[in-house]
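Q: Entry one of two.
A:
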Amino acid sequence: LQTSQHVLFERSEMKDRHLVRKKIKEHIADKAKLPILIFPEGTCINNTSVMMFKKGSFELGGTIHPVAIKYDPRFGDAFWNSTKHSMMTYVFNMLTSWAVVCNVWYLPPMVKEEEEDAVHFANRVKAVIAARGGMSVLPWDGGLKRKKVKESFKEEQQRKYCQIV
C-alpha cells in the first residue's frame, strides 16, 4: 500500500473525509500523477445491478474515466455473499474455481456539466456503466445488505407503485 500511494480512510470519521478530499484534489491537480481508481459503490453486488454511487468521488472535479466490469459466472462466481459464506469459504471457492473471467469495458471519459450537481453526475455515470454491462440501475446503496430498509424509502416505493396502479 505504501508503494502505490493508496489513500486510506475511515468513512465514519469526518476528519478523515476532509483529509481524503484534500489529498484527492491535490492528486487530480498534479497532471504528472496517474489517475485514481475509485469504486464509488463502496461494496460489491451480485453482478446483476449497479448500486447507488457515493457522491464524494463526483464532487471533486476532474475527469471521470468510467469502467464497466462484469464477471462471467460460467467458470466460477466471484461474488462473495458475506451473509452466507465466511471469508475462508469464499477464498477457498475462488482458489478452486476453474477461472475468474470478467469482461471489462473502458468507457469514454466524462466530466460534470455546469448545471449538474454531484448526485446527478454520479447517476449519469452509473447509468452509462450499467447500460454497457447489461445491468440494472438500483437507487439504493450496499447498506441494505446489512441494515434494515428505511421507512422513508419504503414509503417512496409504495407511492411510486400506487401511481403505476
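Q: Entry two of two.
A:
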Amino acid sequence: MDSLHAAGIRLAEVLQAGPPWLEKFWISVTSLADPKCVFTVCFPLAYFLNRKVGVSVLWVGLLSEWLNVVLKWFLFGERPFWWVHESGLARKQLVMLRQFPVSCETGPGDPSGHCMITGAALWPLVTALTTLASRHSKSLVVKLSPFGAYILLLLAVGLSRIFVLAHFPHQVVGGILTGAALGWGLQGHTPATRSLGFFVATGLALLLSSLALHSLVIATGIDIDW
C-alpha cells in the first residue's frame, strides 16, 4: 500500500504544480461537490423539474451517504495530508505539497464521499436528461451528452480531492465506481409514492443503525476512530 500511496502523493504534486488559475478551479470544484449539495441543491432542482426524479435523487443520496460512512469504517483508508508525515515520507525525501483550508479532513478516507455520493445521487438525474435528450434529438452526441458531462464532473471532483490532499487516487476511483453502481442499482427501487414521513423514518433508522454498528465495532476492539 505504501507504493500506492507514494504514487498518489506524486500525482498530487503534479496537480499542485499546475497553472495558478487551476488552484481556484480545483478548490471551487471540491467545495461545490460537497455531499451536502446533493440535499440542498441537486434534490430541490431535480424535484422542481420532475417529482419522481427528485425523490430518486433524495433516496439514492440518503442511502449512499449512509453506506459511505459504513464503508469508511471497515476499509479505513489513509488521508494524504496526514500520511505523508505519519509514513515518514516527508523526512526521507523532499515533498513539494501545499495545504489548504479544506485539506485537514480527519477520519478514514476510503472511498471518497464526494465522488461516491455525488456519483450515486446524480445518476437518476443524468438518466432522466438522457431520456429527454433522446426524445428531442436523433444525434448520438446529444443523447450521450448528459453522461459525458456526468463523467467529466466526477473526474474533476476526483482530481480536486487529490489536489487538496483529501484522498488518494485509488480512493477516488473506488468512490466513482461505487457511486455509479449504487445509482444504477437503486434508481429502479425508489419509493416515489411514499410520504415525507417514510423518508424521515428511514433517515432516523439509518442514523440509529450506524450508531449501533459503531458501538458494536468499538466493543469488538476495533478502533474505527483511529
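A: Comment on entry two: The chain has a mean pLDDT of 89. Residues 137 and 143 are 7 Å apart (CA to CA).
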